[in-house]
């Protein structure tokens, strides 16, 4: 989204604004809480991935292994009609 427009100077300006808003004494606590939040988020994402079934279908359930495939539709098995008549040389 930002592409090449976001440079090092932009990062310096953002850090200065954060420093002015929160003050130097509060920055270590802010960084610690952000780190804890990221750690919790990563552990939740990992646990959600571990809980997911291998390959859910459209309803969100895993079909049993003995389930037969669905019957093909009549349109798929019917012979195809040519749309254009053959060209005679």
TrEMBL record:
Residues 45-89 are annotated as: Disordered. NCBIfam families: PRK00575.1, tatAE. Pfam families: TatA_B_E. It is found in: Cell membrane. It comes from the Bacteria. Keywords: Cell membrane, Membrane, Protein transport, Translocation, Transmembrane, Transmembrane helix, Transport. One of its GO terms (cellular component) is TAT protein transport complex. The keyword Membrane applies. Belongs to the TatA/E family. Residues 63-81 have a biased composition (Low complexity). GO terms for molecular function: protein transmembrane transporter activity. The Tat system comprises two distinct complexes: a TatABC complex, containing multiple copies of TatA, TatB and TatC subunits, and a separate TatA complex, containing only TatA subunits. Substrates initially bind to the TatABC complex, which probably triggers association of the separate TatA complex to form the active translocon. The keyword Ribosomal protein does not apply. This is Sec-independent protein translocase protein TatA.
């Amino acid at each position: 989204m930002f592409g090449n427009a976001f440079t090092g100077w932009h990062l310096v300006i953002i850090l200065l604004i954060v420093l002015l808003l929160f003050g130097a004494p509060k920055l270590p606590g802010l960084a610690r809480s952000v780190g804890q939040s990221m750690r919790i988020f990563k552990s939740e994402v990992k646990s959600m991935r571990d809980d997911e079934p291998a390959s859910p279908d459209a309803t969100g359930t895993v079909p049993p292994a003995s389930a037969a495939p669905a019957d093909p539709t009549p349109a798929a098995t019917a012979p195809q009609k040519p749309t254009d008549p053959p060209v005679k040389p």
